[in-house]
Amino acid sequence: MGSPASASFLAQTEGVDQIGQIFVVCLYLFVGVIVLMAGAFWLRRWSRSDSGSGSSGFSPDQLRKLRKEGKMSEEEYKRAHALITQALKAQFPAPRPTDPKSPAKQSPPRRPPTQPPPDAS
Fold it and tell me: d(Cα 45, Cα 41) in Å, to the nearest integer?
């Protein structure tokens, strides 16, 4: 049979092995989280670059410039401008006007400021 010193040494090495295993598992988890975050970042970037407004990439200012330079007829300008404004309105809808008579939006009536109580002297 082994001496008590060798038993304590074996117990210590088992603890070191367990700590090493825990460290390796934590390292794998850390690397996995980093890979998932990089993948999510790439996916988000890819989805944003892919989503267009449905227009051909021209802004209203660029259309006006093309019309002034004579590279676009008035009819082409009107059609293209209508398409772009329609796409922009679909992408950025106008806020709904609020009804001033709506009780949910009205603020409570103002009360006059309270005056401090008179001194009891």
Answer: 6
Give the span between the Cα atoms of 66 and 62, in whole angstroms: 6
Q: What share of the chain is helix, strand, coil (3-state, %, to 5)?
A: 60, 0, 40
What pLDDT does 94 receive? Answer: 73
CA dihedral 46, 48, 53, 54 (to 10 degrees): 20
Token pair for residue 50?
Answer: 């892919």
Residue 46: which pLDDT band, with cuts at 50, 70 and 90?
confident
Q: CB neighbours of 80 closer than 8 A, spacing ≥ 6?
A: 56, 58, 63, 72
**Structure-model confidence comparison of residues 40 and 47, the more confident one:** 40
* CB contact at 8 A, 84 and 60: yes
Pick from 90, 65, 86: which is nearest to 77 by CA?
A: 65
The Cα 81–Cα 64 span in angstroms is 9
The more confident residue out of 39 and 2 is: 39
